[in-house]
Amino acid sequence: MGDDAKQGIVQRGLEGVIAAKSGITHIDGQKGELLYRGYDIRDLALNCSFEEVAYLVWNGDLPNEEQLREFTMELKAHRALSVRTMALLRGYPITSPPMTLLRTAASTLGILDPRAESDAVHTNLSIAIEITARIATVIATYHRLRQKKEPIPPDPHLPFAANFLFTLFGERADELRERIFDKCLTLHIDHGFNASTFAARVTAATLSDIYSAITSAIGTLRGPLHGGANQKVMAMLQEIDRPERARDYVLNLLKQRKLVMGFGHRVYKTEDPRATLLRQWCRELGEHTGQTKWWEISKIIEDTMMEEKNLNCNVDFYSATVYHMIGIPEDFFTPVFAMTRMVGWTAHILEQYQDNRLIRPRAQYVGPRGRKAGAVRRAPRTKGQANRGAIDVPANSKTGPQQTGARLHCSGVSIPRGLAVGSHQPQPLIEVMLVAFQLQVLNLGDCHGPVDLRGLV
Fold first, then answer.
1. Which of 6, 98, 130, 215 has the lowest tally of Cβ within 10 angstroms?
2. Quick count: other Cβ atoms within 10 Å of Cβ 301?
3. Is the model's pLDDT at 181 over the cut of 80?
4. Mean pLDDT confidence for 1-24
5. Catalytic pick from 28, 40, 113, 226?
6. Per-residue pLDDT for 164 more than 60?
7. The model's pTM
8. Residue 242 sits in the same domain as residue 134
9. What angle do CA 204, 210, 214 make, to 5 degrees?
10. Is residue 375 part of a domain?
């Protein structure tokens, strides 16, 4: 039996494959159960702050009063951005997609951190805490800059969620928005071996640094099949606009066999426990802000999808309206998700470092076999093909190309002599590409004779 045949059944997308052991998050898709370090997500969201849950995910246990105080102080101490980081953010185009900027900013933080290459556990835990604090400030700062407003310095007296909204808006959010946003952050801290978390672990498994692993995760989350679903949900709700249009809108999508955003999940076969909480908070915020139509439209869509397709909504469906009513811009939904997922990503990176094995799956080869290179015949070149690959320069110059040393000159373009016809000495690839580009721009107007670009290797 051949080696490829021994590999067994291909699991597309690695669906159902157990890639490693983890003590961070447990998901039971049949029961609709999600646990962080053994605690039910609903229990944590309703009874703990984001800081407490972050401490739990990083350290394995909920903090006591003194541990929480010290941990909160550490998070607050690292919110501010350095002068160099702020200067770099000001230099980025304000038209950049937020996730593109976030990916680049995370990598930049690594460049500026002299500890980035450390393999010490306590050092990498400190980096995890610091990058979580600073990424929140990066996101809020970029939002302010693209509005052509000055960034708001972090407030050391505010907890994580309240401070983020303050630096995003430039003023304190009301108590209900702050409280619900804090709970939303807990819901999104981790979710097992999803695509971005797995990408982070794959990078960490090579023993690359923690910043590289985080950058891998952000780049993966940037993809539309992983991040951004709640942004698409909000776009759908805004298009519907009125509750009386919701049912027909959904039925029309289903008739056309198009996706209804925010429904179905790779893991959950029943209701996502996070969606249960978000539904409740959506209604609370709708009543609080006078925007009940978003709750009404969402509920009609949810009921219609259950009747027609027996599909439950996922975490993205109600998080869209919750974030919208808190005041977060739609294109910042995914960066905010990344901000809180920093905790989960870094916890998984640290776990990977502690019990590492290079992640190296196999592919089942499905290409041809038994092909012979010697059987490929090359037809003899005809006279007309002799100079294939050369650029023939029109002989319309009065002066012709000027030779100086080992180079030719025409229209101000300096051409290596090795590019002349008949000379096939290797040339640096970048030099050859530059010459070709310059000649194309100049349209070869003041030169004559062929210029051969075949000598580039």
1. 6
2. 26
3. yes
4. 75
5. 226
6. yes
7. 0.80
8. no
9. 90
10. no
Report how far residue 78's alpha carbon sits from residue 131's, in angstroms, rounded to the nearest whole number. 8
The length of the chain in residues reads 457
User: The CATH number of the domain where 266 resides is what?
Assistant: 1.10.230.10
Residue 339 and residue 198: Cα distance in Å, rounded? 17
List phi, psi (to 5°) of 263. Answer: -130, 145
The catalytic position among 265, 288, 424, 448 is 265
H-type alpha helices, 148-291: 160-169, 175-187, 195-205, 210-221, 229-240, 243-255, 273-289
Which of the listed residues 303, 321, 339 is the one where a domain comes to its end?
A: 321
Q: Residue 260 pLDDT more than 50?
A: yes
pLDDT on residue 379: 60
- What's the mean pLDDT in 342-361? 96
Amino acid at 360: R
C-alpha 220/C-alpha 334 separation (Å) is: 12
Residues 98 and 195 placed together within one structural domain of the fold: yes
pLDDT for 392 beyond 50: no
Asked if the structure places residue 210 within a domain, the reply is yes
The verdict on 122 and 154 lying in the same domain is yes
Of the candidates 182, 209, 272, 316, the residue annotated as catalytic is: 316
Q: What is the pLDDT of residue 362?
A: 86
What's the structural domain count of the chain? 3
Residues 189 and 56 both lie in one domain: yes
Specify the amino acid at residue 333: F
pLDDT confidence of residue 326: 98
Task: Note the pLDDT tens digit of each residue in 78-127.
Answer: 999 999 999 999 999 999 999 999 999 999 999 999 999 998 999 999 99
Say whether both 43 and 167 belong to one domain: yes
CA gap 290, 285 in Å, rounded: 8
Per DSSP, which regions of 291-418 are E strands? 390-393, 402-404, 407-410, 413-416
Write the CA distances from 273 to 45, 269, 318, 327, integer angstroms: 11, 11, 12, 24
User: What is the token pair recorded at 62?
Assistant: 């909920």
Say whether 446 is catalytic: no
Does residue 299 sit in the same domain as residue 423?
no
Q: What's the token pair of residue 249?
A: 């809108």
pLDDT value for 417: 46
172 plus 260 within the same structural domain: no
316 catalytic? Reply is: yes
Range of the domain at 413: 389-456
Instruction: Give 448's pLDDT tier (boundaries 50, 70, 90).
Output: very low
Sign of CA dihedral 263, 265, 271, 274: negative
Is 341 among the domain residues?
A: yes
pLDDT at 441: 40
Q: Give phi and psi for 229, each to the nearest 5.
A: -65, -40
> Is the pLDDT reported for residue 402 higher than 70?
no
Q: Has residue 405 been placed in a domain?
A: yes
Say if residue 221 is in the same domain as residue 276. no
Give which of 397, 403, 411, 406 is closest to 448, Cα–Cα: 397
